[in-house]
Design a protein that fits this description.
heterodimer, A: mainly alpha, Four Helix Bundle (Hemerythrin (Met), subunit A), elongated, B: mainly alpha, Cytochrome C Oxidase, Chain A, 18 helices, 2 strands, about 0% strand, globular
Chain lengths: ~200, ~550
């Protein structure tokens, strides 16, 4: 009998620490360049239109209360994401789950408010120069928040599954939301405030 | 009772053995398709990248024929615009990017003492995303899409294909950067990271800084082109917005890992420790400044000499930062390589890999020098073939360096060494091809031959026209011969590689070239998890220390 065939290969070593956190940080760098690049194009085209005597945007009324609340929402979300890191580090499952749950809820609220802004403004993508820019920038921002919501869901499943002490996922999750909040702050300033 | 006794061997009929060969082929293919082994993912990038260089050089050859022969008999006139764009897109997205990234993915984790690349499934997904995007882009060009394309849906597909390619490349670059930052062997501080792995990190970070900007602009271009066509100039306006990614200096960012190959090989060949490693790292990082030039699109500075000196200063300072610092970085890399040669012990063990990398480094330097010269506006080189020449120098130079890297690390990747005698002449052929392909374009640029990325048929006609260019047909003919030689080099190199895949060639021992870093401590070829036992690193050159008593760096 060939007992050699019964031997199992050595188990793969555990993943290096902080890999997810560093990977998320690099993704955030790329995301910053993405949003920064798009906003730069926005500013450039706005300057061209204004210099030519046009108005930017044309006749759209921006629901400023909603967009301001969105800004408050996304920064509040960071607070809860950080709370999840704090609770996870102490093995407090209930508080971690609560913090992640509220984070997810706030992300959904943000997306809902964004949809309200889309519908309320009624920007026509085909009709004028503002449409493609608006939907490009705001759509990208919404996609970033949806990606964050997926991240929150994954982190919540891991936390509920008992992997509380592994706080790297929670830290990476919080880092992502800090990035998303910063990105939205820039979008808010350029798109909704200076217009 | 369970028995695991093997069945007695029986002679297989011809049909049986054919069936088992087919089955094992598909099993092997399946293992490659879903692999999480970074060496295989890197090799897949490299394989497609080499095909890409061949495609680029064939396209360059055909377009050179069109330029040299003003009767225009090679291609139909309505296909010229897309052919030009296939050539320019492939230079970046099918050649330099996959080659540099592929070598980084295949080799950097080995050099770090890692058992795997960070997020291997993400790296593999990145490969497929890039490959799919490349296919879509080329399909769109074939369907009359691309910049200034006549088919609107195909233009949209062209943009979407680019988006998909960029997402894939970003995913893979993120894995490389994360690996260097997190998966180093015990004791390997950042100062002890091998030079090539450092260049892979800088190259990956450069991609993470530059490519998302292109992606963002592509989103806006896509929306505008599909629905409005108001802001960005429609299909013809695409070149004005993303044309910068197909040329220098952006291309130089993607070539940084190739520079690292040459820097890695010099001390090995000259049997010396790399002096001033920190300065070498800084030199490679300085080349990465081109990422800033690309990201901020600071290509052209109005460097004009005026009586007060005010205009000169306003143009010269950004020029020196954005195009001078990368050049300084290259000088540092080459200078420290020469210093390693001076410190070497005994006769250098010259090999084909180093010759390839050395020639490639020289070509990249000439390309960056061209980028520097081009930014002097008084020379009026913008919009001429000079820009294409600089891009070709960088791309073909990077390809030569990567071929050197493949030859050097072949023992770790598939367990065989390539014959120096066979490969060395190819390095010379590649050098000759690169110079012939690019140098005539420099000369023609000074003679005001129109160049650039065409956005419509009028641009194509201007690029193909040799009116008023002294000896224009000669420069075009020389350039097309150069493209042909580069294609020949790559095809011959791939042929030699394939020959060793089938079992011919010398089986490599652990360290056939006297490599200094820890990947040379694992068997050749490296096992799936790279190391049975991850070594603890006590210096930047642990394998060199084993054979040389004395101080550790």
């Amino acid at each position: 009998m060939n007992t050699g065939q019964l031997a199992l290969p050595p188990a793969a070593p555990p993943a290096p620490r902080r890999q997810l956190l560093i990977g998320t940080a690099l993704a955030c760098v790329a995301g910053t360049m993405l949003v920064g690049g798009m906003l730069s194009v926005w500013v450039l085209l706005r300057e061209r239109v204004v210099d030519a005597g046009g108005r930017f945007p044309i006749d759209y009324v921006i629901p400023e209360v909603t967009t301001n609340v969105m800004l408050i929402t996304i920064w509040s979300l960071c607070l809860f994401a950080q709370w999840a890191v704090y609770s996870g580090g102490r093995g407090d499952r209930a508080h971690t789950a609560l913090a992640l749950g509220v984070s997810g809820l706030l992300a959904v609220a943000f997306i809902n408010a964004q949809a309200f802004v889309f519908v309320g403004m009624g920007v026509a993508i085909r009709d004028d120069y503002y449409g493609a820019l608006f939907y490009g920038v705001i759509g990208t921002m919404s996609a970033l928040v949806i990606a964050g919501l997926v991240f929150t869901t994954v982190a919540a499943f891991r936390a509920l599954g008992g992997r509380l002490r592994d706080t790297e996922v929670l830290s990476a999750h919080a880092l992502y939301w800090y990035f998303a909040a910063t990105a939205y702050s820039a979008v808010w300033l350029v798109v909704y405030v200076t217009k | 009772m369970t028995t695991i006794d093997t069945r007695p061997d029986t002679a297989l009929s011809d049909d049986d053995s054919r069936d088992s060969a087919v089955v094992s082929f598909f099993v092997g293919l399946g293992a490659w398709v879903v692999t999480t082994d970074h060496k295989r993912i890197g090799r897949m990038y490299l394989g497609v990248g080499m095909l890409g260089v061949v495609a680029v050089s064939v396209l360059g050859f055909v377009l050179g024929l069109e330029r040299a022969d003003d009767s225009g008999t090679i291609l139909e006139s309505n296909a010229l615009l897309q052919t030009f764009q296939s050539y320019r897109v492939s230079l970046v997205f099918a050649a330099v990017l996959p080659l540099a990234l592929g070598l980084s993915i295949a080799v950097a984790p080995l050099q770090l003492g890692a058992r795997s690349i960070a997020f291997p499934r993400v790296a593999l997904t990145g490969f497929y995303s890039w490959l799919g995007g490349l296919g879509l882009t080329m399909g769109a060009l074939a369907a009359n899409g691309g910049i200034g394309g006549g088919d609107e849906d195909a233009v949209d597909l062209f943009l979407a294909g680019h988006g998909l390619m960029i997402v894939g490349l970003l995913a893979s670059a993120g894995c490389v950067a994360t690996s260097v930052l997190t998966t180093r062997a015990p004791g390997m501080t950042m100062r002890r990271v091998p030079v090539f792995a450092w260049s892979a990190l800088i190259g990956a970070l450069g991609m993470l800084l530059v490519l998302p900007i292109v992606f963002g602009v592509i989103i806006l271009l896509f929306l505008d082109h599909r629905y409005a066509q108001l802001n960005f100039g429609g299909a013809e306006g695409i070149a004005a917005w993303i044309g910068w990614v197909f040329t220098v200096p952006a291309v130089a960012v993607f070539a940084i890992p190739a520079i690292g190959v040459a820097a890695e090989l010099a001390p090995v060949v000259f049997k010396a420790r790399q002096p001033m490693r920190g300065v070498m790292f800084a030199g490679i990082a300085l080349v990465g400044v081109t990422a800033l030039a690309a990201a901020t699109q600071q290509f052209v500075q109005a460097v004009t000499i005026d009586t007060t000196g005010q205009e000169f200063l306003e143009g010269a300072v950004p020029m020196l930062i954005f195009t001078g610092l990368p050049l300084l970085g290259m000088l540092i890399v080459m200078g420290l390589g020469a210093l390693a040669a001076k410190d070497g012990e005994g006769r250098p063990s010259l090999n084909a890999a180093f010759v390839f990398a050395f020639f490639g480094l020289g070509m990249i330097f000439v390309g960056l020098l061209g980028n520097f010269v081009m930014s002097i506006t008084d020379l009026e080189l913008i919009g001429t073939t000079f820009e294409e020449g600089a891009t070709l120098y960088v791309v073909y130079g990077a390809a030569l360096c990567v071929l050197g890297g493949v030859a050097f690390w072949a023992p770790k990747l598939w367990g065989r060494t390539l014959s120096d005698k066979a490969v060395m002449p190819l390095a010379l052929l590649g050098l000759l091809g690169t110079i012939l392909a690019a140098l005539p374009l420099y000369v023609a640029g000074f003679l005001d031959q129109t160049g650039g990325i065409p956005a419509n048929d009028a641009d194509v006609a201007a690029i193909l026209s040799l009116d008023g260019v002294d000896g224009g047909a000669i420069w075009s003919t020389l350039s097309l011969i150069g493209h042909g030689l580069v294609a020949l080099t790559i095809v011959a190199f791939v042929g030699l590689m394939l020959k060793t895949f089938t079992g011919s060639g010398d089986e490599a021992d652990e360290n056939p070239y006297g490599g200094q870093t820890i990947e040379w401590s694992t068997p050749s070829p490296a096992p799936a998890h790279n190391y049975e036992h991850v070594p603890t690193v006590a210096s930047a050159t642990p394998q060199f220390d084993l054979t040389h008593e004395g101080s550790q760096s």
